[in-house]
Amino acid sequence: MTLMPSSLMRAAALALILSGASHAARAADEGITVYNAQHESLTKAWADGFTKETGIKVTIRKGGDTELANQIVQEGAASPADVFITENSPAMVLVEKAGLFETLPKDVLAQVPANFQPASGRWVGVAARSTVFVYDTRKLRESDLPKSLLDLADAKWKGHWAASPSGADFQAIVGALLELKGEKITAEWLKAMKANSTAYRGNSVAMKAVNAGEVDGAVIYHYYYFGDQAKTGENSSNVALHYFRNGDPGAFLSTSGAGVLASSKHKEQAEAFVKWMAGKRGQAVLRDGDSFEYAIATGAESNPKLEPIAHLQAPKVEPSKLDSKKVSELMTAAGLL
């Protein structure tokens, strides 16, 4: 057997090292691809801050929660996505159940309280939004307001409230109701909702309708009000927010999630981005920016204009247990989808 000269062995080893370094450099140059179902401006602020600090490029592809979750499932191991970010957790659960997320490192998960991430460790919360009842202050007094989300099923609310049932936001709220109260109560509430409520396409449209006097109140997420107030206030000048509190299903706090795809070819960079979003600097974007979503990392501060999370008295809902498939079935059966 002819042995390779030591000089040639060293040269071959060096070539392998250089090849690996070159591959790592190419990966860094390519950056990461993010499938983004969060608000475009928020994710861009996260991406810009991360790129400025690390030099890693972030390419963002925009879509809706359910749309992108289903796309990832269809793409499977061939998905070009490295990171998936959502507005609500049911879309994260869909991808998680398909086995397409990588388990995140412990130092990433450790930044966020357990109630804002699944027990599996496959993804992590990066922001949150609170359910509220926005109401017309010209028509309703505080004493008139529903004590519970379930109160809206009462016949006295017929024709007096609205929602955007086709959106992922409202379906996440129904998912929390299902988890907290069970299928029977949820189905009955949805049937009453069909009879009592007016459907609008979009939370901002529903709030605008309340402001215009078309309907007395609407179930939406909190940040639509604060976002409008920070601009002209023209779509929220006649409305106020009512928080249900006391662990009520109407006090549900929805988790926006981020996860790394198991098929990612740039896992280190993808994990670094998720860690950055859930970390001090990423959460500061929520505090200082105009998204008006809640910062949720341990010790992180939210925008000072928001009602503190501790005051919301939100119910405890394991984000990975929100069943989007069952919600869709129940809402379809009630004639809401």
Note down, in words, how this protein is organized.
The chain is globular, with a radius of gyration of 23 Å. The chain folds into 2 domains: 151 residues, 3-Layer(aba) Sandwich (D-Maltodextrin-Binding Protein, domain 2); 135 residues, D-Maltodextrin-Binding Protein, domain 2, CATH 3.40.190.10. It is built from 13 helices and 9 strands. The protein is α/β, with parallel strands linked by helices and 337 residues long. Strands 1, 2, 3, 4, 5, 6, 7, 8 and 9 form a 9-stranded mixed beta sheet that branches. α3 runs parallel beside α4 and α6 crosses α13.
SSE topology:
Elements: H1 6-30, E1 32-36, H2 40-54, E2 58-62, H3 65-75, E3 83-85, H4 89-97, H5 106-109, E4 124-136, E5 161-163, H6 168-181, H7 183-196, E6 197-199, H8 203-211, E7 217-221, H9 223-230, E8 239-242, E9 253-260, H10 267-278, H11 280-288, H12 309-312, H13 324-333
Helix pairs in contact: 2-11, 3-4, 6-7, 6-13, 10-11
The main pleated sheet reads as:
9 strands, mixed
Quote the CATH topology of the largest domain. Answer: D-Maltodextrin-Binding Protein, domain 2
Encode the helix/strand succession as letters: HEHEHEHHEEHHEHEHEEHHHH
Note the gap between the termini: 74 Å
Report the helical percentage: 40-55%
CATH architecture of the largest domain: 3-Layer(aba) Sandwich
CATH superfamily of the largest domain: Periplasmic binding protein-like II
Give a quick summary of the entry.
GO terms for molecular function: metal ion binding. This protein has 337 residues and is an alpha/beta fold.
